[in-house]
Amino acid sequence: MITRREFLAASVLLTGCGRSQVILEATPPKADHRIAYGTDPNQFGDLFLPTSAGPHPLIIFLHGGFWLKAYDLTHAGFACRALTYEGFAVWSLEYRRLGQAGGGWPGTFDDVKLGAAHMNAIASKYGLGRNNVVTGGHSAGGQLALWLAKQNIIDLRGVVALAAISDLKLAWELKLSNGVVGELLGGSPDDVPARYAATSPLELLPIAPPQRMVHGDGDDVVPYDMSETFAKASKNAILRPVRGAGHFDLIDPRSAAWPFVRDSFKEAAKS
Length: 271
Hints:
8-stranded mixed β-sheet; single chain
């Protein structure tokens, strides 16, 4: 298991990364365990554990990357490991993505449910606190985390959505990542309205577990206004704007934005 000192040494290249995507290129710390939750090669999770004895409060984390196969869970490793130093266990889920067999609607969503529920099968072995579970995610993973909170398959204390794509209709209109939402759901909001209604967090309100929306106002990938609109529409959300932060600062534990992320998870676990 990597120590805090080793972690800081490994992540020193991230210092001052600002709005760059260097975190996508850096080699993150390895998870303590990689565990399959299904039979497909992409149905697995990385489990990061604190050094203390459990049971630990658990974060089910969903990585971003516009649901595309080009982006896997590895780039979230720095954030996941940093959260273990706050006493959390982190179950970071991989899922089938666009460009892979079964990726998109409905496979990606089926995987998130299956992977999240699998925490019950591994909780006793790894000291995971089933009664203190938070879900969180970044970008497209933020959309998946908010969606998961609506499914009522596990008891969640809260959701932490980092620069989340919380309005899929707007994401379609803005043609984020070259209209990738249309690929995810198999068409436009006019073509498949029921799929947008079933997956877009804004359409899913109210969502019972409290939501904490963390978003940088310097984000040039997912507009800050999306989280602001979602927080206003939800009766159960807190918006935490991060002045000057870019999209990837929220998963960079060496950034000035990280305390907002860290504290949001801590607060969610105490809800």
